[in-house]
Amino acid sequence: MADQNIANTTRPFIGHPQLHDSKSPQDTENKSQLTKHDDDDSKGIFTGDMNDKSCKKIKLEPHVCSLMAAEATEDHDEDELLPPCDCEECFLAGNSDSGSNDFETGKQMKRIRTMSSWRKIRNMVHWSPFVQQFKKHRYPWIQLAGHQGNFKAGDQGTILKKLCSKEQTCLQQLMKDIIRPYVPEYKGEVERDGIKYIQMQDLLCEFDCSSLMDCKIGVRTYLEEELQKARENPKLRKDMYQKMIEVDPNEPTEEEHAQQAITKPRYMIWRETVSSTANQGFRIEGIKKADGSSSRDFKTTRTREQILDCFISYTDNNKNIILKYMRRLKAIRATLEASPFFARHELIGSSLLFVHDNTEQACVWMIDFGKSNPIPNDATISHRAPWVEGNREDGYLTGIDNIIDIFEEMYTNATGSPTS
Hints:
Blueprint: H1 25-30, E1 35-37, E2 45-47, H2 88-93, H3 115-124, E3 151-153, E4 158-162, H4 165-174, E5 186-192, E6 195-201, E7 211-217, H5 224-232, E8 236-237, H6 238-247, H7 254-259, E9 262-263, H8 264-274, H9 277-280, E10 282-288, E11 294-295, H10 304-315, H11 319-338, H12 340-343, E12 345-348, E13 351-356, E14 362-367, E15 371-374, H13 396-413
Antiparallel strand pairs: 1-2, 3-4, 4-6, 5-6, 7-10, 7-13, 8-9, 10-11, 12-15, 13-14
């Protein structure tokens, strides 16, 4: 199946947004009291150095970027802009029923001047992660999975993400929570050309020739308020009908086929069931391997067996890498189960970012908190109970449980003995 394969491509490969920077000795000392999980104990939490052994870093020269796009070294026109983002989140946020992605229209879009350069960027816009550069050339900054155009280069070891007040608040709270070692470090708010950004760690900058995987966690990727709002204005959407039949021509009802349109609530609920989100509590959003192959074609990757094949392909069935991922995931799970922040928030649309490299360094981080909301004071959530509209359950731990189960099966079946 196409969604199980990582298609080879000659497009240049660029890094990822939520990325890790090196720590000074003083920083490490200041953070030494943060809680951390024992590699060999999936339930215990104890204090210690936040720098997990499974996340041992590789020192790179200061001027070397995380990952360089070999074909993107030419200077681009200052007026050249990327088109509007066509990721699922922005698609659902839009009101258009035309399905048009014409980036040359719209009052806020400038004319593309250098079409040859744009064609190169357009070819990688959906699949390419992120690149950090410290040379004279300009490079596109694109996410592995998610919104396009929300990121800029920061100082060395940092990236800038367009400010979202909700995400900023979450990151500030997380810096005081025991989850802190497992999220990008928040480094404050900055302004560039009149636009405000969150400055955070570049999680990739110390990996050598990285492979990346983004998994969106939870049994739903929309807020209950978003579903309710969509129901209040049940406009028929031709663009959502087109997206549905591209995946499954037999899914629309006879009436929907006749109208050639569906409502937004219908699309939102269907989208979660066609992938592994609803039944596994997570879905693969994108994979970028160090050999240059990449894919975001996981819309119908639904079964455990399909996911297992994707994970094996991503890790090359390397037992050391599998073990380090498994240990880190268990550390994250145990810490979440004891976290005051996690107990009082629903995490919607958040991802786990997996990164490993050719030296067998491997780590996982929690990223993307723009839809993380505090729950009402009189409510409680387990993050494992089934979601029923109104109960705020997100299935976050359900997703992590299932990912860990798959990695444990991979580790058992992988050949060879781990060296670490």
